[in-house]
Recover the amino acids of this structure.
C-alpha cells in the first residue's frame, strides 16, 4: 500500500491541499510496479489530505489506519467503505 497522485481517486477524497491532484491509497502490482486500485464503489469520506503533512499508514486486514501528529488517527474500513476519526495521545487527556 502506498500513496498515489491521481486525478481519479477511488478510496480517499476528491481533493488535497497543495496540489491540483488527489492523493489516493492503492496497492502496488508486484509484477508491473503499477497502481492496483482499491475501488469499493465510493470514497471513504476521510478528512482533507495535505501534500506537506501526509499520514503514517498501517494495514490490518480490511482496516487501513492513518496517523498524523496534529491530525489524530483515522481508520478506513475498505470492506464497507466507512471511516472513523479517533483522537488518542497525551494532548487529549
Amino acid at each position: 500500500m502506498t500513496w498515489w497522485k491521481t486525478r481519479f481517486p477511488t478510496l480517499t477524497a476528491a481533493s488535497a491541499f497543495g496540489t491540483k491532484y488527489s492523493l489516493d491509497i492503492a496497492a502496488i502490482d508486484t509484477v508491473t510496479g503499477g497502481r492496483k486500485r482499491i475501488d469499493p464503489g465510493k470514497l471513504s469520506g476521510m478528512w482533507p489530505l495535505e501534500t506537506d503533512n501526509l499520514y503514517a499508514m498501517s494495514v490490518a486486514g480490511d482496516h487501513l489506519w492513518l496517523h498524523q501528529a496534529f491530525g489524530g488517527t483515522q481508520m478506513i474500513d475498505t470492506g464497507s467503505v466507512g471511516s472513523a476519526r479517533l483522537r488518542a495521545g497525551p494532548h487529549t487527556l
Observations:
- The mean pLDDT is 81.
- Residues 2-92 form one domain.
- Strands lie at 2-6, 16-17, 22-28, 35-36, 49-50, 56-60, 63-68, 72-77, 82-86.
- The two ends are 32 Å apart (CA to CA).
